[in-house]
Amino acid sequence: MVQTIPANEVTLRHLQQSFGLQQTQNSNFFSEWSEPHLELSSVEQEALDRVKANFVALMADPPLLENSVKMVVLAPLLDLAGFYHWPFRMETETSVEVVLEDEGLVIRGRIDVLVLKQRLWLLVIESKRSDFAVTRAIPQALAYMLGNPGTEPPTFGMITNGNEFLFLKATRQPTAEYGNSRLFSLVNPENELYEVLQVLKRLGAEVIHDIPA
What distances in angstroms separate CA 62 from CA 53, 74, 128, one per listed residue? Predict the structure, then answer.
């Protein structure tokens, strides 16, 4: 009998047992998030300052739910990252099925935003409060990323609840492994949306570079 698990219920143990997935200890595996990035323009910085100010204002009346996170935080980030224009293709609320061939296990679920041929996944925690930690969604994001039909190029992901941001990188060949960035947060004194946007731009460039001519 095939066992089906909603993607939002899958655990790292499921992924370890079914894919052989391991968290890498190699600090160079996911260097894309930490390497020096291009400086943002003053216009971009001002726009990100408004995003943070809007978020802080809304936090005065919690909880900040998923749709508000999309409008106030995620939509401006995607715009500034250039993800609304070719060669990026946006699909929202796409149903994804991950089939684990050896274990007879199917993981089903919904991802909120899919960018560019399933190579870059942006996941807004579904119907959760803004104080729901993004680390709780790591298994869900990895399940979607490992379900990518391509096997060789790495896949990238970002999880956000509007306040926190975490980036992921996963590969299936030659081994199934993943790494993550540090946790970015709007609670910190500096506007860490600057770095979040820089990482998004870098990952977008990585994905475009790998598109066959």
Answer: 15, 18, 12
